[in-house]
Amino acid sequence: MGYPEIATQAEAWMAQHGHVSHDTIDCSHFVTQVLQAVLGSGFKYMRADDFMHSRSFTTVVGNPERGDLVHWPGHIAIVLDGAKGDFIGSQTSSGVDTSNWMTDPYWSHRSHRTFLRYNGM
Q1: I need a surface site. Which of 27, 72, 86, 121 has the fewest CB within 10 A?
Q2: Is 40 exposed, middle or buried (0-12, 13-18, 19+ CB in 10 A)?
Q3: How many CB atoms lie within 10 A of CB 56?
Q4: CA–CA–CA angle 10, 16, 12 (5° rounding)
Q5: Rounded CA separation 65/43 (Å)
Q6: Strands 95-100 and 75-81, bridge-based pairing
């Protein structure tokens, strides 16, 4: 079972702060702030690529769930709807915003996408 409250917190963050520029908060800081709000301040900052090597996350085999993370080399975001491909993150072009890895021309053509799930460690 995933952690859907991670996605809910990410949506609440955007509702409260708006589409904050990537220059203000990058993808790693955004995801870390959301995870700290859900998991507690003991969750330490990680760069985007560090999530792949953290024992706190496991690779998702099968379909990602709401609250899982989606990782591309150099980028991390939070899954909103795995069946539809919706995610939220801080992108260079749009700042904190939602996007879609299936339909967005940029994300749909990026390879090496991996889904990660917090495992409670």
Answers
A1: 121
A2: exposed
A3: 16
A4: 30
A5: 21
A6: unpaired
User: 113: domain CATH number?
Assistant: 3.90.1720.10
Cα separation, 88 vs 118, whole angstroms? 16
Chain-centroid distance, C-alpha 70: 5
Structure tokens at 64: 């990602």
Quote the CA–CA distance of 108 and 15 in Å, as a whole number: 26
Amino acid letter for position 32: T
Per-residue model confidence as pLDDT tens digits over 34-74: 999 999 989 999 999 999 999 999 999 989 999 999 999 99
pTM: 0.95
- Which residues constitute the domain of residue 98? 4-118
Look at the chain and report how many structural domains it folds into: 1
